[in-house]
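Fold sample X.
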Amino acid sequence: MAVSVRMSPLLEKELELAAQRQGVTKSQFIIDAVERALGRKNPYELMLQAKAEMAQDPRSAALSKTFVAEHQKAYDTERSRADLIAKLRAKHGLSAD
């Protein structure tokens, strides 16, 4: 069934951008929002369902160990930022003003 909704151009633009960020159509974004508002799509219940499905998967333990191992060392954003700036300055011949 088709439903038509009138909204301000600004609200429609926000809707379009939010849908793009999530990688869905505007229609799907609106359907998801209405389902959440009606209590048909509870994020907490979805999380519990996903965890239960993961527990049933025999590969889940191996996957969990793999992803945990990736984050043992903290990521140093300031150092990475400084390295990137230095590389860009060297590439483009800029001084460190």
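Fold sample Y, listed below.
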Amino acid sequence: MNRELRVAAYAVCVREGRVLLARWIAPDGAKRWTLPGGGMDHGEDPYDTVIREVEEETGYAVEPVRLLGVDSITRRYPRRLGSFADFQGLRVVYEGHITGGELRHETTGSTDLAAWHPLETVARLDHVELVGTGMELWRTRPAVGRVALPGRSGAEPQR
């Protein structure tokens, strides 16, 4: 089994009671909302990654103003020729402040739409679990920089 590690950086951008989300297109074509952000290039700092990725996916210039936390997931994914990957995703989550730009949609990447959503509607959206994790980090700002998830120890419980 191949081991794969992906490090990515994301932003929770909230203003006027709304959060900025991007609609991710899964490999199977399914579309779900996620935090704007994405994979780090080799040698890139996560701070620079989140600035680049938010602009690519939403058109906005963002300033990371606070490190909210780091989230780690593991998954087992099928790969070519019947093999599988033991995947780990390490996600660095910042609070972001929009400093410029205009809302637009990504046309050649892994997302196809960007939009502001009222905070009270986010839980009802079809979204990836990172949205819930990021919103909980933003709401609770845990000192250890992580929220407790089922099967994990430490930090405050996640709603």
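Sample Y note: The radius of gyration is 15 Å.
Also: Residues 153-159 have pLDDT under 50 and may be disordered.
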